[in-house]
Specification:
Radius of gyration: 41 Å
Strand order of the largest sheet: 1-4-5-9-8-7-6
Number of domains: 2
Helix content: 40-55%
Largest sheet: 7 strands, mixed
Bound molecules: phenylalanine
CATH class of the largest domain: Alpha Beta
Number of strands: 9
CATH topology of the largest domain: BirA Bifunctional Protein, domain 2
Order of helices and strands: HHHHHEEHEHEEHEEEHEHH
Shape: rod-shaped
Distance between the termini: 84 Å
């Protein structure tokens, strides 16, 4: 009898390892504890056990019964709570949660577009630091020591020698001192000017600088490149003009305007960039032989260009980070 009880317990333990849900648990319970179940049958057969063996056999059967009952109760509880949990967590009929996906800022989009156009014209992209020294921002670019642009009114000086760059032209200097011509480079980035904030100007904006240095560069090529750019960027029918201008680091220099007609307002010419042939002094400052090499450069303001393209009339809205504005693009 005791052997029978022992092997029933072993079989039960083994069967238990295959139980993994309420259904298989119930099957096991029926097999062992129902009216015709294995343990019930053992209890019934107690009456045939010789008298002197009865106490020990009875005790063993009771233990087995209690043991299996406890396991069934515990497992049942844990399966039920697991089921409850999974039932309440996964409701496949619920609508999905909407995820808010950010978008590129309109200035980044514009920069990407400009980069793509110039990459198509054979330019490579370079970047320089926003914290610049006075030499790269001014001196190397042929600004005389007393030039008004160095004045505290325009420039955010950080120390006597360091400042927040006022244009991307210092990246020209960095590139020409570190790389040998021929060069065909596009240099985008943020620039800073200490100006009163208004609808037209902000203390921070973006520029894209262009620089080509080679032995046979011409002003006609500079014009051709910029015309190709505005036609791709604004559309073939864009109206443009070049005006003579002055920059310390280019000679001759020009500015390019495009015709802007804001909806419902009178049209006018709007300046989008400055350009010119790299001044031989600048080439000498960076150690390039100005007898052998010629260069052209241009620098354009991105905010203005984007505002013209998308019909925005206040530059400040580009820096407010108001989602109602940003998500329109
Ligand atoms: N750096 C000039 C500016 O900020 C633009 C410029 C760049 C002009 C290159 C000529 C050549 O206004």
């Amino acid at each position: 009898m005791l052997d029978k009880i022992d092997s029933a317990r072993k079989n039960f333990d083994e069967a238990l390892t295959k139980v993994n849900d309420l259904t298989s648990l119930e099957e096991l319970r029926i097999k062992y504890l129902s009216r015709k179940g294995i343990i019930t049958q053992i209890v019934d057969s107690l009456k045939d056990v010789p008298k002197e063996e009865k106490p020990a056999a009875g005790k063993a059967v009771n233990e087995l019964k209690n043991y299996t009952n406890r396991i069934f109760d515990d497992l049942k509880k844990s399966f039920e709570s697991e089921k409850k949990k999974s039932d309440s967590f996964i409701d496949l009929t619920l609508p999905g949660r909407e995820r808010v996906i950010g978008s590129k800022h309109i200035i980044t989009q514009t920069l990407d577009e400009i980069k793509d156009i110039f990459k198509g014209l054979g330019f490579s992209v370079y970047e320089g630091p926003e914290l610049e020294n006075d030499y790269n921002n001014f001196t190397a670019l042929n600004f005389p020591a007393d030039h008004p642009a160095r004045d505290m009114q325009d420039t955010f000086f950080v120390t006597e020698d360091f400042l927040l760059r006022t244009h991307t032209s210092p990246v020209q200097v960095r590139l020409m001192t570190s790389k040998k011509p021929p060069l065909r480079a596009l240099m985008p980035g943020k620039v800073y000017r200490n100006e009163a904030v208004s609808a037209k100007s902000y203390c921070l904006f973006h520029q894209v600088e262009g620089l080509v240095v080679d032995t046979d560069v011409t002003f006609a090529e500079l014009k051709g490149t910029l015309v190709a750019f505005v036609k791709q960027f604004f559309g073939k029918s864009v109206q443009y003009r070049f005006r003579p201008s002055f920059f310390p680091f280019t000679e001759p220099s020009a500015e390019m305007d495009i015709w802007w007609e804001p909806k419902g307002k009178e049209g006018r010419w709007m300046e989008i960039l400055g350009c010119g042939m790299v001044d031989p002094n600048v080439l000498e400052n960076v150690g390039i032989d100005s007898e052998k090499y010629i260069g052209y450069a241009f620098g354009m303001g991105i905010e203005r260009t984007a505002m013209r393209k998308y019909g925005i009339d206040d530059i400040r809205i580009l820096f407010d980070n108001d989602k109602r504005f940003l998500t329109q693009f």
